[in-house]
Amino acid sequence: MTLSIAVVTAGLSDPSSTRLLADRLVAESAGLLEASGRDVAVDMIELRPLAHNLADFMLTGFASGDLEGALASVARADAVIAVSPVFTASYSGMFKMFFDALDNDALDGTPVLIAATAGTARHSLVLEHALRPMFAYLRAVVVPTAVFAATEDFGSTSDGALTGRVQRAARQLVALLADQAPSPAERRTTKVTIDNPEDTPDFEDMLSALSR
User: Fold this and answer.
1) Nearest-10 Cα torsion for 158, 129, 21, 161
2) pLDDT tens-digit profile of 12-67?
3) Residue 50: what are its φ and ψ, rounded to 5°?
4) Are strands 90-91 and 39-46 parallel, antiparallel or unpaired?
5) Which fold has domain 2-210?
6) pLDDT at residue 192, as a whole number
7) How far apart are the C-alpha atoms of 86 and 73, rounded to whole Å?
8) Model pTM score
9) Is the dihedral of CA 84, 90, 93, 95 positive or negative?
10) CA quadruple 71, 39, 171, 121: dihedral positive or negative?
């Protein structure tokens, strides 16, 4: 079975440090999965080209154009890597708009690796006070290690520390994927229906069966 990873990156420039960090995270995660014999499909979702669609969604409540496909890709993914630049001590507005457009149940049980970029390390706590609570609200399974990268972390002597954080977070994401059975996407699409109300199992019988 091929595992799907949806990568959501909210960088505004082209290229951006946000996309650079996302590339490193997905390369490390996919590399570990492939080394274990798993096939991996990666869907890179850049939010900048979706800005107009996101604004339209906020006004109308309907996803149009490429936004509809991006939301569907995240909802059916086995894992998500989400990376945002920091604006005013929090995630970017476009990043929040995208996950506001996502169905509240779409990430239920899905492993999510969170990451952020900023010009200074003073913003590193954004991962814990903004991103992690948002994904907890969406009932995602957030990887313990969140990855923050300041401008100084790229191409400097501190890059080794960033590499270590990337590797640790990727290992944790892969471990969560290895533990899940069935996948989050399968769990969300599995529904139990009872055609005839008279066929509803007796509650006492159900409890008795569980205690055996």
Assistant:
1) 20
2) 888 899 999 999 999 999 999 999 999 999 999 999 999 999 999 999 999 988 99
3) -95, 10
4) unpaired
5) Rossmann fold (3.40.50)
6) 39
7) 24
8) 0.83
9) positive
10) negative
Q: What is the residue whose two structure tokens read 């799907």? A: 4
- The residue whose two tokens read 């390390």 is 121
Full 3-state SS string of the chain: CEEEEEEEECCCCCCCHHHHHHHHHHHHHHHHHHHCCCEEEEEEEECHHHHHHHHHHHHHCCCCCHHHHHHHHHHHCCEEEEEEEEECCEECHHHHHHHHHCCCCCCCCCEEEEEEEECCHHHCCHHHHHHHHHHHHCCCEECCCCEEEEHHHCCCCCHHHHHHHHHHHHHHHHHHHHHCCCCHHHHHHCCCCCCCHHHCCCHHHHHHHHCC
93 closest CA partner among 43, 48, 142: 48
Each as own residue / partner, the long-range contacts of residues 65-72 (CB below 8 Å, 24 or more positions apart, any chain) are: 67/101, 70/45, 70/98, 71/98, 71/101, 71/102, 71/103, 71/106
Report the C-alpha gap between 150 and 158 in whole angstroms: 10
- Write the single-letter amino acid at 74: V
Tokens at 9, concatenated = 């990156």
What is the total residue count of the chain? 212
Alpha-carbon distance of 52 to 199, in angstroms, equals: 49
